[in-house]
């Protein structure tokens, strides 16, 4: 009898203990380091956006939905209520002499699912005030929103770089967020803004590449060091599921639909032919990998980087 009571007591304690184990709804900090020659590049996770299916243009909605589901992507709803998650990534380049940030993420401009760039930079071991240059791919809210916080500069020691046409377009656009205009003007008025053109060198081995269409002055950045190359291509794609297999598909966010399509097709062929490592603002975090042609010769596929520790 005593043994039975003891066994029941152990069982009761085990069940009680199991009922009190807390679910840990957290992930590891949102950064991933990798090397490009002697340069250390860190992918910085800002968060994610939920995009509706009608984001894509030039493809039947049911077909787009089927493609996304086939990839087992993070989705919710169906039909008109269907949406899919897209990462928002930025990139921090450590040349050994300076820190250069590519885009600043959303800040508080796009809801609670984004805005983690500053926190994740700090988790990666850096301070916002250590960053000396910020180079923008373009000036959409999810790329420029993290430049300020409560109207104050998040990166007080940085000089900002953007394509000249891109800056002029948005600063003269009445729909552009006033807070963004004010903070950009603060940099411009303090002579902490430099206009970029195609091929402009930002630092040794880092140059801007004009990739227009998504916006009027959309830029990519080519990093070359020690015989290795990385292309940060900004918003050439939104997600990977639809536009790799169907590079003709554009998005509702593209300023010039046809130009965006032609830029994407030419760039995908180029990086695929050359085997260039590629990083994207809206590819699954850490947003790093390679582009390869599909076996049937139609479209491409995304080959994400495999996690490895740094040597």
UniProtKB/TrEMBL annotation:
Keywords: Hydrolase, Metal-binding, Signal, Zinc. GO terms for molecular function: hydrolase activity; metal ion binding. Residues 87-282 form the Metallo-beta-lactamase domain. SMART domains: Lactamase_B (SM00849). Residues 1-18 form the signal peptide. Pfam families: Lactamase_B. The keyword Repeat does not apply. Belongs to the metallo-beta-lactamase superfamily. This is Beta-lactamase domain protein. It comes from Sebaldella termitidis (strain ATCC 33386 / NCTC 11300). The lineage of its organism: Bacteria, Fusobacteriati, Fusobacteriota, Fusobacteriia, Fusobacteriales.
């Amino acid at each position: 009898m005593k043994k039975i009571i003891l066994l029941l007591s152990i069982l009761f304690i085990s069940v009680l203990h199991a009922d009190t184990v807390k679910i840990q709804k957290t992930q590891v900090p949102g950064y991933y380091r990798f090397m490009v020659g002697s340069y250390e590049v860190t992918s910085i996770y800002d968060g994610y956006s939920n995009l509706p299916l009608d984001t894509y243009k030039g493809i039947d909605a049911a077909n787009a939905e089927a493609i996304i589901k086939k990839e087992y992507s993070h989705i919710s709803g169906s039909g008109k209520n269907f949406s899919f998650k897209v990462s928002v990534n930025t990139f921090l380049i450590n040349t050994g002499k300076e820190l250069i940030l590519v885009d600043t993420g959303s800040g508080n401009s796009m809801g609670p699912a984004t805005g983690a760039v500053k926190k994740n930079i700090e988790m990666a071991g850096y301070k916002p005030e250590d960053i000396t240059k910020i180079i923008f791919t373009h000036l959409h809210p999810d790329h420029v929103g993290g430049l300020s916080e409560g109207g104050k500069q998040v990166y007080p020691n940085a000089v900002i770089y953007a394509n000249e046409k891109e800056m002029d377009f948005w600063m003269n656009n009445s729909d552009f967020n006033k807070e963004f205009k004010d903070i950009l003007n603060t940099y411009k008025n303090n002579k902490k803004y430099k206009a970029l053109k195609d091929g402009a060198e930002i630092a040794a081995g880092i140059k801007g590449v004009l990739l227009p269409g998504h916006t009027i002055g959309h830029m990519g950045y080519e990093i070359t060091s020690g015989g290795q190359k990385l292309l940060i291509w900004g918003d050439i794609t939104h997600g990977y599921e639809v536009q790799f297999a169907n590079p003709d598909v554009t998005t509702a966010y593209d300023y010039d639909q046809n130009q965006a399509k032609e830029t994407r097709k030419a760039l995908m062929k180029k990086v695929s032919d050359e085997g260039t490592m590629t990083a994207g603002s809206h590819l699954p975090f850490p947003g790093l990998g390679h582009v390869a042609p599909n076996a049937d010769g139609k479209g491409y596929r995304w080959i994400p980087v495999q996690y490895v520790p740094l040597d």
